[in-house]
Amino acid sequence: MSKPVIAIDMGGTKIKIGLVQEGAVLSYISVDADSGKGLTPKLPVIKGAVENILSQHNLTIDDISGFGIASPGIVDSIEKRIISIDKKFGDAPEINLEEWCLQTFNLPFFIENDARSALIGEWKYGKANTYDNIVLMTLGTGIGSAVVMEGQLLRGKHFTAGVLGGHSVINYQGNICNCGNRGCVETEASTWNLPVIAAAQKNFTDNQLALHQIIDYELIFRLAEEGDSAAAAIRDRSLQVWSACAINLIHAYDPEVLVLTGGIMASNFYILPFIRQHVEAHAWTPWGKVRIEEGSFPRTAALLGIAHLINH
């Protein structure tokens, strides 16, 4: 049996620190990301969480085979650095994470894009494990994507292949995105832009939605069910946006299966059937229907994926 590994999933809202062995997450700790303040202040927190989780399992660092990070942004998995990141953890490209890992833990270091990591987790251990052509789409703080084509994980010459689905343009007259483009999928329907999206609703101040300081999709779906017209309009528009993104990804990469994952999928009873119906009606796939599945590991796929990269 291979040694366990330490796996980190750097989400925009939460950072997960996990202990993973043989395709199973033995346990993980979740801490607030505070991603707008950068990654540097979180490194001591990550170190403390690792020490805590090792103590819980009566392990020492000598029992661990490697340390991996699943990071948002464009990641050079060969040079082991974050090339560019979209507003979250803005200082990360300047940090030598491999050096920090060696100095802090003296462990081999690995890093990969978080959506690619999640796709590997679903491909090797989840519902996509019988397919060689897969697109994964993550719905969370932002919108991520990743691709396996003909049994090969797509990375590309500059490490951007397959991962910029959330920055495909679906409204060329839309608002400016964090990435600098206009009308991206993320700008039109993602958690980080929900306050702007909500405030733009014509009837926003007349609805319950306006009374909440923190607006997320859990709130949007709940209030929409309760009859809040602003929340219902945002929900319905977001479903259309995500469906359009799914079709763009299907047309670009010709998958057998599209896997949907991420925090927003807690509302899967709405999202999954809507996207399935929309794709079946509008995607140009004369060979048949793309299977659309919810991920097997909505919270831990990226931990499983980065751990797999460490051990293989």
UniProtKB/TrEMBL annotation:
One Pfam family, short name: ROK
Family: Belongs to the ROK (NagC/XylR) family.
Protein name, UniProt field: ROK family protein
Taxonomic lineage: Bacteria, Pseudomonadati, Bacteroidota, Flavobacteriia, Flavobacteriales
